[in-house]
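Team,

Forwarding the record for the chain on the shared tracking sheet. I've put the sequence and predicted structure together so nobody has to dig through attachments.
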Amino acid sequence: MLERIILKLSKKYKRQKQLSNVGAKVVNEPVYIEAVQKSALEIEKTPYRFDIINFLLQKINKQHSLYLEIGVRNPYENFDKIEAVQKYSVDPGLENKENPVDFKLTSDAFFAALDAGEILSTAIKFDVIFIDGLHLADQVERDIDNALRYIDDNGFIVLHDCNPPTEFHARESYYYRNSPAGGLWNGTTWKAFYKARLNTSLFSCCVDTDWGVGIISKAKNIGTHSSVHNPFFEYHVFETHRKESLNLISFEELQQRFNN
């Protein structure tokens, strides 16, 4: 019996050592190191998404500005920093049980209630709508489509997490952490933003900061539609044509486009 136990423990130890050696090899691979470095670089970038949103609100320059945020989680991270006269927040509270928002709903439920005249007004038009909810392309696409119906003609739709630095950051599952991206997650938001950029009736760009801050406009020419051919939304195609897929620009370039 004792010999069996010793043999079993010996096999277990050998297996653990093998796994440890594999892990050490993985974290020292160039692709792993590069992804970790890209995460570090992205974290250091400024300005932040709220800086860009406030810049847009200043440019709209309305006496009574209306702002809507979809996907809040912790209001102090972004919502509280927005300088609009009237602000509304939407979040189902999956990540924050206190959930101190105006509408404790999913974005789909919020827009359905808005369409039905159950909340606010069916005639309401927001100056800026910020989309930072579930980071999966099908949901983000619905949020964009709904936002387009309730954004003022001179307003802006803003999206977070449009520029994942690696395919690890662009994974579908938020809960998978055994990659160089760790808990950092942009999801597949980039696919929905890229798809919106194929719409020839919209203007759009993505500011290269804070994980990619996408902007969509009906009226202001901040950038014309994308001509990148990526019908299957392949990440390697996106990576090769990142700048053109997103119309990736600096914040200074965005400022210049408003000065022209």
